[in-house]
Amino acid sequence: MRIRLNVPPGLIVLTVPPLSLYLHLPWCVRKCPYCDFNSHALKGELPEADYVTALVCDLDQDLPRVAGRRVESVFFGGGTPSLFRPESIARILGEARRRLPFAADVEVTLEANPGTVERGRFAEYRAAGITRLSIGVQSFNPRHLEALGRIHGTAEAVHAAEEAHAAGLANFNLDLMYGLPGQDVWEARTDMERALSLAPAHLSHYQLTLEPNTPFYIHPPRLPHDEQVWQMQQECQTLLHNCGYAQYEISAYTRAGRQCRHNVNYWRFGDYLGIGAGAHGKLTSANRDTIVRLWKVRHPAAYLQDAGTPAGIGGITEVTAGDRAFEFMLNRLRLMQAFAAADFESATGLSFSRVRATLEQARTAGLMEMTDGQWRTTPRGQTYLNDLQARFLPEAAAASLDTPDAG
Ligand SMILES: C[S@@+](CC[C@H](N)C(=O)[O-])C[C@H]1O[C@@H](n2cnc3c(N)ncnc32)[C@H](O)[C@@H]1O
Ligand code: SF4
Fold it and tell me: Which residue minimizes the CA distance to atom 7 of ligand 1?
Protein backbone atom coordinates (compact mmCIF):
# COMPACT_ATOMS: atom_id res chain seq x y z
CA MET A 1 0.00 0.00 0.00
CA ARG A 2 1.61 3.28 -1.10
CA ILE A 3 0.05 6.60 -0.13
CA ARG A 4 0.80 9.63 -2.30
CA LEU A 5 -0.65 13.08 -1.93
CA ASN A 6 -1.85 15.03 -4.98
CA VAL A 7 1.17 17.03 -6.04
CA PRO A 8 2.31 18.81 -9.19
CA PRO A 9 4.39 16.57 -11.49
CA GLY A 10 8.15 16.81 -10.96
CA LEU A 11 7.91 17.66 -7.28
CA ILE A 12 9.68 15.23 -4.97
CA VAL A 13 7.33 13.81 -2.38
CA LEU A 14 8.02 11.54 0.53
CA THR A 15 5.92 8.43 -0.03
CA VAL A 16 4.61 6.19 2.71
CA PRO A 17 6.24 2.76 2.20
CA PRO A 18 4.91 -0.69 3.21
CA LEU A 19 4.55 -1.31 6.95
CA SER A 20 5.98 -4.26 8.89
CA LEU A 21 5.55 -5.23 12.53
CA TYR A 22 8.54 -6.42 14.59
CA LEU A 23 8.00 -8.02 18.00
CA HIS A 24 11.02 -8.58 20.23
CA LEU A 25 11.02 -11.46 22.71
CA PRO A 26 14.26 -10.97 24.67
CA TRP A 27 14.95 -14.18 26.61
CA CYS A 28 17.22 -17.14 25.81
CA VAL A 29 18.01 -20.31 27.72
CA ARG A 30 21.63 -19.17 27.84
CA LYS A 31 23.50 -16.21 26.41
CA CYS A 32 25.84 -17.18 23.55
CA PRO A 33 29.33 -15.64 24.01
CA TYR A 34 29.35 -13.98 20.56
CA CYS A 35 25.88 -12.42 20.69
CA ASP A 36 25.27 -8.70 21.23
CA PHE A 37 21.53 -8.75 20.55
CA ASN A 38 19.22 -7.54 23.33
CA SER A 39 18.85 -11.06 24.70
CA HIS A 40 19.05 -12.20 28.30
CA ALA A 41 19.64 -15.57 29.92
CA LEU A 42 16.42 -16.63 31.54
CA LYS A 43 16.70 -16.73 35.33
CA GLY A 44 13.69 -18.43 36.85
CA GLU A 45 10.34 -18.67 35.12
CA LEU A 46 9.56 -16.97 31.80
CA PRO A 47 7.17 -14.07 32.56
CA GLU A 48 5.20 -15.10 29.51
CA ALA A 49 1.68 -13.82 30.26
CA ASP A 50 2.95 -10.51 31.67
CA TYR A 51 5.20 -9.96 28.67
CA VAL A 52 2.35 -10.61 26.23
CA THR A 53 0.23 -8.06 28.11
CA ALA A 54 3.13 -5.59 27.97
CA LEU A 55 3.46 -6.08 24.20
CA VAL A 56 -0.23 -5.33 23.70
CA CYS A 57 0.01 -2.15 25.83
CA ASP A 58 3.09 -1.11 23.85
CA LEU A 59 1.25 -1.66 20.56
CA ASP A 60 -1.74 0.35 21.80
CA GLN A 61 0.55 3.28 22.54
CA ASP A 62 2.07 3.19 19.02
CA LEU A 63 -1.23 2.68 17.16
CA PRO A 64 -2.07 6.37 16.48
CA ARG A 65 1.20 6.60 14.54
CA VAL A 66 0.02 4.02 11.98
CA ALA A 67 -3.71 4.73 11.77
CA GLY A 68 -5.26 3.35 8.57
CA ARG A 69 -2.17 1.40 7.51
CA ARG A 70 -1.95 -2.29 6.69
CA VAL A 71 0.66 -4.71 8.01
CA GLU A 72 2.49 -6.59 5.24
CA SER A 73 4.76 -8.74 7.43
CA VAL A 74 5.28 -9.69 11.07
CA PHE A 75 8.55 -10.91 12.62
CA PHE A 76 8.97 -12.44 16.09
CA GLY A 77 12.68 -11.93 16.80
CA GLY A 78 14.89 -12.25 19.80
CA GLY A 79 16.19 -13.58 21.89
CA THR A 80 14.51 -16.91 21.45
CA PRO A 81 10.84 -16.44 20.53
CA SER A 82 10.42 -20.23 20.42
CA LEU A 83 10.55 -20.15 24.24
CA PHE A 84 7.03 -18.71 24.06
CA ARG A 85 4.19 -21.21 23.85
CA PRO A 86 2.11 -21.31 20.65
CA GLU A 87 -0.89 -20.07 22.67
CA SER A 88 1.02 -16.90 23.56
CA ILE A 89 2.06 -16.34 19.94
CA ALA A 90 -1.59 -16.83 18.90
CA ARG A 91 -2.72 -14.32 21.51
CA ILE A 92 -0.22 -11.67 20.37
CA LEU A 93 -1.24 -12.14 16.73
CA GLY A 94 -4.95 -12.06 17.62
CA GLU A 95 -4.55 -8.80 19.57
CA ALA A 96 -2.47 -7.27 16.76
CA ARG A 97 -5.04 -8.27 14.12
CA ARG A 98 -7.83 -6.72 16.20
CA ARG A 99 -5.98 -3.42 16.10
CA LEU A 100 -4.43 -3.36 12.62
CA PRO A 101 -5.47 -4.77 9.25
CA PHE A 102 -3.14 -7.52 8.02
CA ALA A 103 -2.50 -8.14 4.30
CA ALA A 104 -4.29 -11.29 3.08
CA ASP A 105 -0.92 -12.90 2.29
CA VAL A 106 0.86 -11.53 5.37
CA GLU A 107 4.23 -13.18 6.09
CA VAL A 108 4.61 -14.09 9.78
CA THR A 109 8.10 -15.28 10.79
CA LEU A 110 9.19 -16.74 14.12
CA GLU A 111 12.84 -17.22 15.12
CA ALA A 112 13.47 -20.61 16.67
CA ASN A 113 16.42 -22.13 18.49
CA PRO A 114 16.78 -25.88 17.74
CA GLY A 115 17.34 -26.47 21.47
CA THR A 116 13.75 -25.46 22.22
CA VAL A 117 11.87 -27.42 19.58
CA GLU A 118 9.70 -30.11 21.10
CA ARG A 119 7.94 -32.59 18.84
CA GLY A 120 4.81 -31.09 17.29
CA ARG A 121 5.70 -27.56 18.36
CA PHE A 122 6.10 -26.13 14.84
CA ALA A 123 2.69 -27.49 13.81
CA GLU A 124 1.20 -25.61 16.77
CA TYR A 125 2.99 -22.42 15.75
CA ARG A 126 1.58 -22.83 12.27
CA ALA A 127 -1.92 -23.21 13.71
CA ALA A 128 -1.22 -20.04 15.73
CA GLY A 129 -0.60 -18.10 12.49
CA ILE A 130 3.12 -18.51 11.83
CA THR A 131 3.84 -18.85 8.10
CA ARG A 132 7.66 -18.90 8.15
CA LEU A 133 10.40 -20.04 10.52
CA SER A 134 13.97 -18.84 10.96
CA ILE A 135 16.01 -21.55 12.66
CA GLY A 136 19.32 -20.61 14.33
CA VAL A 137 21.49 -23.62 13.49
CA GLN A 138 24.90 -21.85 13.22
CA SER A 139 26.78 -25.13 12.57
CA PHE A 140 26.25 -28.89 12.49
CA ASN A 141 29.70 -29.63 13.91
CA PRO A 142 29.52 -30.59 17.63
CA ARG A 143 32.94 -29.04 18.35
CA HIS A 144 31.88 -25.71 16.88
CA LEU A 145 28.45 -25.78 18.49
CA GLU A 146 30.14 -26.20 21.83
CA ALA A 147 32.68 -23.43 21.17
CA LEU A 148 29.74 -21.15 20.30
CA GLY A 149 28.04 -21.98 23.60
CA ARG A 150 24.95 -23.32 21.81
CA ILE A 151 22.34 -25.21 23.81
CA HIS A 152 21.75 -27.74 21.01
CA GLY A 153 23.72 -30.47 19.26
CA THR A 154 23.81 -31.64 15.65
CA ALA A 155 20.82 -33.97 16.00
CA GLU A 156 18.54 -31.22 17.31
CA ALA A 157 19.56 -28.92 14.44
CA VAL A 158 18.61 -31.59 11.89
CA HIS A 159 15.46 -32.46 13.84
CA ALA A 160 14.31 -28.80 13.81
CA ALA A 161 14.52 -28.65 10.00
CA GLU A 162 12.69 -31.97 9.66
CA GLU A 163 10.00 -30.79 12.07
CA ALA A 164 9.54 -27.65 9.98
CA HIS A 165 8.91 -29.75 6.86
CA ALA A 166 6.60 -32.11 8.77
CA ALA A 167 4.60 -29.14 10.08
CA GLY A 168 3.99 -27.83 6.55
CA LEU A 169 6.34 -24.90 7.17
CA ALA A 170 8.68 -25.62 4.26
CA ASN A 171 9.17 -21.87 4.01
CA PHE A 172 11.94 -21.81 6.61
CA ASN A 173 15.32 -20.17 6.90
CA LEU A 174 18.46 -21.68 8.39
CA ASP A 175 21.01 -19.33 9.99
CA LEU A 176 24.56 -20.60 9.51
CA MET A 177 27.73 -18.86 10.62
CA TYR A 178 31.24 -19.31 9.22
CA GLY A 179 34.73 -18.16 10.21
CA LEU A 180 34.18 -19.99 13.52
CA PRO A 181 36.91 -20.60 16.13
CA GLY A 182 39.23 -23.33 14.82
CA GLN A 183 37.11 -23.91 11.68
CA ASP A 184 38.77 -24.87 8.40
CA VAL A 185 37.43 -24.48 4.87
CA TRP A 186 36.39 -28.12 4.59
CA GLU A 187 34.34 -27.84 7.80
CA ALA A 188 32.59 -24.68 6.63
CA ARG A 189 31.76 -26.38 3.33
CA THR A 190 30.50 -29.48 5.14
CA ASP A 191 28.20 -27.33 7.28
CA MET A 192 26.77 -25.78 4.13
CA GLU A 193 26.30 -29.19 2.48
CA ARG A 194 24.42 -30.45 5.53
CA ALA A 195 22.27 -27.33 5.60
CA LEU A 196 21.40 -27.68 1.90
CA SER A 197 20.54 -31.37 2.34
CA LEU A 198 17.70 -30.21 4.63
CA ALA A 199 16.12 -28.25 1.76
CA PRO A 200 15.52 -24.88 3.46
CA ALA A 201 13.66 -22.30 1.38
CA HIS A 202 16.13 -19.65 2.57
CA LEU A 203 19.62 -19.58 3.99
CA SER A 204 21.34 -16.77 5.92
CA HIS A 205 25.13 -17.11 5.94
CA TYR A 206 26.90 -14.84 8.42
CA GLN A 207 30.59 -14.41 9.04
CA LEU A 208 31.17 -14.54 12.81
CA THR A 209 32.03 -11.05 14.05
CA LEU A 210 33.48 -10.18 17.43
CA GLU A 211 31.04 -7.65 18.83
CA PRO A 212 32.12 -5.19 21.56
CA ASN A 213 31.05 -6.12 25.10
CA THR A 214 30.66 -9.83 24.35
CA PRO A 215 32.82 -12.54 25.99
CA PHE A 216 34.29 -13.33 22.53
CA TYR A 217 35.41 -9.72 22.19
CA ILE A 218 36.94 -9.58 25.65
CA HIS A 219 38.70 -12.98 25.30
CA PRO A 220 38.95 -13.47 21.53
CA PRO A 221 39.03 -17.09 20.36
CA ARG A 222 41.46 -18.10 17.59
CA LEU A 223 39.66 -17.38 14.35
CA PRO A 224 40.61 -18.53 10.84
CA HIS A 225 42.81 -16.20 8.75
CA ASP A 226 41.15 -13.71 6.39
CA GLU A 227 42.17 -15.73 3.31
CA GLN A 228 40.58 -18.86 4.77
CA VAL A 229 37.39 -16.95 5.62
CA TRP A 230 37.31 -15.58 2.07
CA GLN A 231 37.68 -19.10 0.68
CA MET A 232 34.89 -20.37 2.97
CA GLN A 233 32.57 -17.68 1.67
CA GLN A 234 33.48 -18.34 -1.97
CA GLU A 235 33.11 -22.11 -1.74
CA CYS A 236 29.82 -21.91 0.18
CA GLN A 237 28.47 -19.41 -2.37
CA THR A 238 29.31 -21.86 -5.14
CA LEU A 239 27.50 -24.68 -3.30
CA LEU A 240 24.46 -22.46 -2.81
CA HIS A 241 24.49 -21.39 -6.42
CA ASN A 242 24.80 -25.00 -7.66
CA CYS A 243 21.78 -25.98 -5.55
CA GLY A 244 19.61 -23.21 -7.04
CA TYR A 245 19.86 -20.63 -4.25
CA ALA A 246 20.25 -17.09 -5.53
CA GLN A 247 21.91 -14.42 -3.43
CA TYR A 248 19.56 -11.44 -3.02
CA GLU A 249 21.26 -9.69 -0.11
CA ILE A 250 24.77 -9.62 1.29
CA SER A 251 24.13 -12.62 3.61
CA ALA A 252 20.83 -14.04 2.28
CA TYR A 253 20.17 -16.71 -0.33
CA THR A 254 16.89 -18.17 -1.45
CA ARG A 255 15.03 -20.31 -3.86
CA ALA A 256 12.75 -18.43 -6.25
CA GLY A 257 9.98 -16.47 -4.57
CA ARG A 258 11.13 -17.17 -1.02
CA GLN A 259 12.86 -13.91 -0.13
CA CYS A 260 12.11 -12.76 3.40
CA ARG A 261 9.57 -10.03 2.74
CA HIS A 262 10.04 -8.58 6.21
CA ASN A 263 13.77 -8.07 5.82
CA VAL A 264 13.42 -6.87 2.24
CA ASN A 265 11.10 -4.14 3.55
CA TYR A 266 13.85 -3.02 5.98
CA TRP A 267 16.44 -3.01 3.21
CA ARG A 268 14.18 -1.00 0.91
CA PHE A 269 13.90 1.58 3.68
CA GLY A 270 10.35 0.55 4.47
CA ASP A 271 8.47 1.35 7.69
CA TYR A 272 8.11 -0.82 10.76
CA LEU A 273 6.59 -0.74 14.18
CA GLY A 274 9.01 -2.04 16.83
CA ILE A 275 7.22 -3.61 19.78
CA GLY A 276 9.01 -5.18 22.74
CA ALA A 277 12.05 -4.54 24.95
CA GLY A 278 14.60 -2.45 23.06
CA ALA A 279 12.67 -2.75 19.78
CA HIS A 280 13.25 -0.02 17.19
CA GLY A 281 10.61 1.39 14.85
CA LYS A 282 10.81 3.64 11.79
CA LEU A 283 7.73 5.49 10.58
CA THR A 284 7.10 7.86 7.69
CA SER A 285 4.48 10.61 7.68
CA ALA A 286 3.89 11.91 4.16
CA ASN A 287 1.67 14.83 5.12
CA ARG A 288 4.08 16.03 7.82
CA ASP A 289 7.07 15.21 5.59
CA THR A 290 8.81 13.46 8.48
CA ILE A 291 10.53 10.15 9.16
CA VAL A 292 10.87 9.28 12.84
CA ARG A 293 12.71 6.54 14.66
CA LEU A 294 11.50 5.46 18.05
CA TRP A 295 12.68 2.76 20.38
CA LYS A 296 11.55 1.12 23.58
CA VAL A 297 13.34 0.72 26.90
CA ARG A 298 15.88 -2.02 26.55
CA HIS A 299 15.91 -3.99 29.75
CA PRO A 300 13.11 -6.57 30.01
CA ALA A 301 12.39 -5.73 33.67
CA ALA A 302 12.00 -2.01 32.91
CA TYR A 303 9.95 -2.84 29.83
CA LEU A 304 7.60 -5.13 31.78
CA GLN A 305 7.00 -2.29 34.19
CA ASP A 306 6.67 0.64 31.77
CA ALA A 307 5.48 -0.70 28.39
CA GLY A 308 2.58 1.33 27.03
CA THR A 309 3.42 4.43 29.11
CA PRO A 310 5.68 7.35 28.16
CA ALA A 311 8.38 5.83 30.41
CA GLY A 312 8.39 2.76 28.15
CA ILE A 313 9.67 4.83 25.21
CA GLY A 314 13.47 4.71 25.15
CA GLY A 315 13.73 7.58 22.71
CA ILE A 316 12.33 9.21 19.62
CA THR A 317 14.16 11.14 16.97
CA GLU A 318 13.45 12.67 13.59
CA VAL A 319 15.64 11.47 10.74
CA THR A 320 17.29 14.55 9.22
CA ALA A 321 17.76 15.02 5.48
CA GLY A 322 21.45 14.01 5.59
CA ASP A 323 20.67 10.95 7.68
CA ARG A 324 17.81 9.92 5.38
CA ALA A 325 20.19 9.69 2.42
CA PHE A 326 22.76 7.72 4.42
CA GLU A 327 20.22 5.37 5.99
CA PHE A 328 18.59 4.67 2.62
CA MET A 329 21.99 3.71 1.19
CA LEU A 330 23.03 1.79 4.32
CA ASN A 331 20.09 -0.52 3.74
CA ARG A 332 19.50 -0.45 0.00
CA LEU A 333 23.08 -1.19 -1.05
CA ARG A 334 22.87 -4.56 0.73
CA LEU A 335 20.34 -5.80 -1.83
CA MET A 336 21.41 -7.26 -5.18
CA GLN A 337 18.31 -5.78 -6.85
CA ALA A 338 18.97 -2.47 -8.57
CA PHE A 339 17.24 0.79 -7.65
CA ALA A 340 16.29 3.90 -9.60
CA ALA A 341 16.49 7.59 -8.73
CA ALA A 342 12.71 7.58 -8.17
CA ASP A 343 13.06 4.86 -5.49
CA PHE A 344 15.50 7.05 -3.60
CA GLU A 345 13.34 10.14 -3.97
CA SER A 346 10.07 8.57 -2.85
CA ALA A 347 11.66 6.80 0.15
CA THR A 348 13.59 9.84 1.40
CA GLY A 349 11.69 12.85 0.01
CA LEU A 350 15.07 14.17 -1.20
CA SER A 351 16.36 15.04 -4.65
CA PHE A 352 18.54 12.35 -6.23
CA SER A 353 21.09 15.10 -6.90
CA ARG A 354 22.10 14.72 -3.24
CA VAL A 355 23.69 11.33 -3.88
CA ARG A 356 24.40 11.35 -7.60
CA ALA A 357 28.03 12.55 -7.32
CA THR A 358 28.83 10.00 -4.61
CA LEU A 359 27.25 7.21 -6.67
CA GLU A 360 29.23 8.28 -9.72
CA GLN A 361 32.45 8.20 -7.68
CA ALA A 362 31.56 4.75 -6.37
CA ARG A 363 30.98 3.71 -9.98
CA THR A 364 34.41 4.99 -10.97
CA ALA A 365 35.86 2.95 -8.09
CA GLY A 366 34.10 -0.17 -9.38
CA LEU A 367 31.80 -0.41 -6.34
CA MET A 368 28.54 0.44 -8.16
CA GLU A 369 27.24 -0.08 -11.67
CA MET A 370 24.43 1.65 -13.52
CA THR A 371 22.39 0.36 -16.45
CA ASP A 372 19.36 2.19 -17.88
CA GLY A 373 19.19 4.43 -14.82
CA GLN A 374 19.21 1.44 -12.44
CA TRP A 375 21.95 1.43 -9.79
CA ARG A 376 23.35 -1.77 -8.36
CA THR A 377 26.17 -2.76 -5.98
CA THR A 378 28.91 -4.65 -7.88
CA PRO A 379 30.58 -7.80 -6.48
CA ARG A 380 33.51 -5.54 -5.52
CA GLY A 381 31.04 -3.22 -3.76
CA GLN A 382 29.69 -6.20 -1.81
CA THR A 383 33.21 -7.10 -0.70
CA TYR A 384 33.87 -3.53 0.46
CA LEU A 385 30.31 -2.79 1.55
CA ASN A 386 31.28 -0.89 4.71
CA ASP A 387 33.50 1.46 2.72
CA LEU A 388 30.82 1.91 0.09
CA GLN A 389 28.16 2.74 2.68
CA ALA A 390 30.50 5.13 4.52
CA ARG A 391 30.75 7.27 1.36
CA PHE A 392 27.14 8.33 2.02
CA LEU A 393 27.70 9.50 5.60
CA PRO A 394 26.47 13.12 5.72
CA GLU A 395 30.02 14.60 6.06
CA ALA A 396 31.52 12.30 3.41
CA ALA A 397 28.70 13.05 0.96
CA ALA A 398 29.08 16.81 1.52
CA ALA A 399 32.83 16.52 0.84
CA SER A 400 32.20 14.57 -2.35
CA LEU A 401 29.90 17.35 -3.61
CA ASP A 402 32.81 19.78 -3.13
CA THR A 403 35.30 17.52 -4.92
CA PRO A 404 33.35 15.71 -7.63
CA ASP A 405 36.46 14.12 -9.15
CA ALA A 406 37.77 12.56 -5.95
CA GLY A 407 37.36 8.89 -5.18
C1 LIG B 1 19.04 -12.72 16.96
S2 LIG B 1 19.77 -14.19 16.46
C3 LIG B 1 18.28 -15.11 16.67
C4 LIG B 1 18.34 -16.59 16.46
C5 LIG B 1 18.15 -17.46 17.69
N6 LIG B 1 18.13 -16.72 18.88
C7 LIG B 1 19.29 -18.45 17.75
O8 LIG B 1 20.39 -18.00 17.99
O9 LIG B 1 19.03 -19.62 17.55
C10 LIG B 1 19.90 -14.11 14.69
C11 LIG B 1 21.17 -14.66 14.06
O12 LIG B 1 22.22 -13.74 14.08
C13 LIG B 1 23.43 -14.41 13.90
N14 LIG B 1 24.44 -13.83 14.80
C15 LIG B 1 24.30 -13.48 16.09
N16 LIG B 1 25.45 -12.96 16.57
C17 LIG B 1 26.35 -12.98 15.55
C18 LIG B 1 27.73 -12.59 15.42
N19 LIG B 1 28.41 -12.07 16.43
N20 LIG B 1 28.33 -12.75 14.21
C21 LIG B 1 27.64 -13.27 13.16
N22 LIG B 1 26.34 -13.65 13.23
C23 LIG B 1 25.71 -13.52 14.42
C24 LIG B 1 23.18 -15.88 14.22
O25 LIG B 1 23.28 -16.64 13.04
C26 LIG B 1 21.75 -15.87 14.74
O27 LIG B 1 21.06 -17.03 14.41
S1 SF4 C 1 20.25 -17.92 21.29
FE2 SF4 C 1 20.34 -16.40 19.63
S3 SF4 C 1 19.66 -14.47 20.54
FE4 SF4 C 1 20.06 -15.92 22.23
S5 SF4 C 1 22.11 -15.40 22.87
FE6 SF4 C 1 22.28 -17.06 21.35
S7 SF4 C 1 22.52 -16.02 19.32
FE8 SF4 C 1 21.83 -14.49 20.82
Answer: 136
CA angle at 345 for the pair 358 and 106, rounded to the nearest 5° = 120
Looking at residue 403, its pLDDT comes to 42
Would you say domain 321-407 falls under CATH 1.10.10.920?
A: yes
CATH classification number, 19-265, choose in 3.90.1150.10, 1.10.10.10, 3.20.20.70, 3.40.50.1980: 3.20.20.70
pLDDT-flagged residues of the chain (< 50)? 1, 403-407
Please provide the size of the chain in residues.
Answer: 407
Report which of 297, 290, 343, 357 is spatially closest to residue 319, judged by C-alpha positions.
Answer: 290
Ligand nearest to the CA of 75: 1
Where do the structural domains in the chain lie, given as residue ranges?
A: 19-265, 321-407
Distances (CA, A) of 227 to 144, 179, 232, 234, 379: 20, 10, 9, 10, 17
Ligand 1 mean position, distance from CA 35 (Å):
7
Task: State in Å: Cα 84 to ligand 2 middle.
Answer: 15
